[in-house]
Write a structure and sequence with these properties.
Layout: H1 11-23, H2 28-32, E1 35-38, E2 45-48, E3 52-57, H3 61-64, H4 69-72, H5 78-81, H6 84-97, E4 100-106, H7 117-121, E5 132-133, E6 136-137, E7 160-163, H8 174-180, E8 185-191, H9 193-206, E9 210-219, H10 223-238, E10 242-244, H11 246-263
Parallel strand pairs: 3-4, 3-8, 4-7, 8-9, 9-10
Antiparallel strand pairs: 1-2, 5-6
Helix pairs in contact: 1-11, 6-11, 9-10
Length: 264
């Protein structure tokens, strides 16, 4: 039951009551700042949607689709594809709440001028970055395999960051975009947990962003790497950030929606 609030009480207290009832705990201090608690590890995360962006890392066809580069290397793409439905649910809730969404894609210029020789030859595989693959030249911008999967395709106006490395900040304009939008928090999803997700979160942490990694919206070809990647982020009191399931984030977004409705 929602307690009665006197009309003479300012709107901030009304928000506090709503937050208190949604979480069944004293979340009202966070509600004053436009935020809601997300139950997370190592402790609750205060999500302020106006200062947050959903950052979806490298959900690209070559990594996730059967017949793509990832599978061609012998990887089990089902380990990544299990993240599609949780990401769809979170993305839908985030868009409905009016939050900023940013996507990333790992890949290189068609002339490969930004591809270090060490990266090209690493793994000593028969097929390398830039070579013809099942969906065009492998990890080359503009090729079919480089693009984001249809299930999570960017909506009009959502920035797409083309990155040449593992981290989304290296050699990109991501930091400038976030600063210009007044973003201080990143809710991070995507693939793979131990490589591009972890690298990006560490880069963001060093730049002062508070990162919440959504566990079931991230994946690795190797389940043990996924598990350890998440544990490293939340270890030692959250050395790189917070970790939570998508259901907890979606619940908080529902709370934001209720608070916005109460403010009208």
């Amino acid at each position: 039951m929602v307690p009665q609030v006197s009309p003479s009480v300012d709107g901030r207290l009304a928000y506090a009551v709503l937050a208190l009832n949604l979480h069944r705990e004293p979340a009202f201090i966070l509600a004053f700042g436009g935020g809601m608690l997300v139950e997370a590890q190592p402790y609750p995360y205060s999500l302020n949607l106006e200062a947050a962006a959903l950052l979806i890392i490298d959900m690209q066809r070559d990594f996730l689709e059967p017949g793509g580069f990832g599978e061609m290397l012998g990887n089990d793409v089902s380990q990544l594809r299990r993240t599609i439905e949780p990401n769809k649910a979170l993305l839908g809730a985030w868009r409905e709440a009016g939050g900023l969404v940013i996507h990333t894609r790992e890949g290189h210029r068609p002339d490969l001028a930004d591809l270090p020789p060490a990266k090209k030859i690493r793994g000593r595989g028969a097929t390398c970055i830039g070579d013809p693959g099942p969906m065009g030249r492998i990890l080359v911008r503009g090729e079919a395999g480089h693009d984001i999967i249809p299930e999570l395709y960017p909506a009009a106006g959502e920035p797409v960051i083309d990155k040449p490395g593992k981290g989304a900040f290296f050699a990109t304009d991501l930091h400038a975009i976030l600063q210009n939008r007044g973003i201080a928090q990143l809710v991070v999803t995507g693939v793979t947990t131990g490589v591009c997700v972890n690298t990006t979160v560490r880069e963001a942490n060093d730049r002062g962003y508070d990162c919440l990694v959504v566990a079931d919206c991230c994946g690795s070809y190797f389940p043990e790497f996924h598990e350890m990647g998440l544990r490293m982020i939340a270890a030692q009191g959250g050395i790189f950030g917070w970790v939570a399931p998508s259901a907890n984030v979606i619940a908080a977004l529902a709370g934001v929606k209720v608070m916005k409705g109460a403010a009208k």
